[in-house]
Write a structure and sequence with these properties.
about 325 residues, alpha/beta, Rossmann fold, 2 domains, 11 helices, 11 strands, about 20% strand
């Protein structure tokens, strides 16, 4: 089937660089004489026909903006048979031949299931601050989120050193330790706690006490939100060590902000790649970058759990601190 009109939508959590990806999809599609329909608020917009034709002018001035001009929203209705049928009827009604879905693993699971049921050609562009898509090196937005968190940690270190305090800093990562591991290493932090790793308070507190006796006056521990809250961990450390311990939760500041050059470049390259894949007849795929090259992966493989090489990070963090 010849593709003449495609829909582009952003689903799940926002990530810096999504706008750059939208821009690339729209402009590269028009370059290839394809019409583009923007879907607002993800699956919710597809179900409720919240659509708008997009042109070159629609994406002017957005390459440096965080978030997504198409908006994004959680949509429990899309998980139902009725919701998916409504979405499919919207595509038929507006003569949309294919979809480009920009999002993370949850978005990819949803579009993969939709494809299996309705066979609508689709390509996924990985955009997630958690870098949680299997088979690729980096997702759009992950580098920006790490740099945002790292900047905050650098600032907190000034206070930690000046006030001779222990700081527990909570970063995003309900199921993934990517951000926590990355900023702990790059920030010269003393410890990091991530999902799937045994939480050993006794060992952490023993290291802090022994370091304090040797003259170490400050300590920074990074914790992924999926492990426990920073407040909870800080309270336990203070109780067991008797040392001044403070908690900081960085929260959603990590999702926003201007995308870094790496996040923008990745978004632009993958936007082009997604449209090219559709033109070549590919479907139920995700585009990504691996070892510097653009790759096209089966969505079923992309949504399998990505292995995080945590042990090597832990070892290096401990050696260097």
């Amino acid at each position: 089937m010849a593709i003449k009109r495609i829909a582009v939508l952003t689903t799940g959590g926002d990530a810096p660089g999504m706008n750059a990806a939208i821009r690339a999809v729209v402009r590269f599609a028009w370059h290839n004489k394809l019409e583009v329909i923007g879907v607002f608020r993800g699956w919710h917009g597809l179900i409720n026909e919240d659509l708008k034709p997009m042109s070159h002018r629609s994406v002017s001035g957005i390459i440096n903006q965080g978030g997504t001009i198409l908006k994004t929203a959680r949509c429990p209705e899309f998980e139902t048979k009725g919701g998916q049928e409504k979405a499919f009827q919207t595509l038929k009604k507006h003569a949309i031949d294919a979809m480009v879905v920009i999002g993370g693993d949850g978005s990819f699971r949803a579009v993969h299931g939709f494809y299996k049921k309705y066979k609508v050609p689709c390509i996924g562009i990985p955009a997630s601050i958690d870098n949680d898509i299997n088979g690729i090196d980096m997702t759009i937005g992950a580098d920006t989120a790490v740099n945002t968190a790292l900047s905050a940690i650098d600032n907190i270190r000034d206070t930690a050193t000046s006030m001779e305090r222990i700081f527990v800093i909570e970063v995003m990562g309900r199921d993934s330790g990517f951000i926590a591991l990355s900023v702990a290493l790059a920030g010269g932090c003393e410890d990091v706690l991530i999902p799937g790793k045994i939480l050993d308070f006794e060992n952490i507190c023993r290291d802090i006490v022994e370091g304090n006796k040797k003259g170490k006056i400050s300590w920074i521990i990074v914790v992924a939100e999926g492990v426990a809250s920073a407040d909870e961990i800080a309270k336990k450390i203070a109780e067991r060590t008797g040392l001044d311990t403070r908690a900081v939760t960085l929260g959603h500041v990590q999702r926003g902000g201007r995308p870094t050059a790496l996040s923008r470049e990745l978004a632009l390259r993958l936007g082009e790649a997604a449209v090219e894949c559709l033109l070549k007849g590919e479907s139920d795929k995700a585009v990504g970058i691996r070892a510097g090259k653009i790759v096209c992966l089966d969505l079923e493989f992309a949504i399998t759990k990505k292995k995080l090489e945590a042990d090597s990070f832990y070892k290096l963090i401990k050696i260097l601190t």
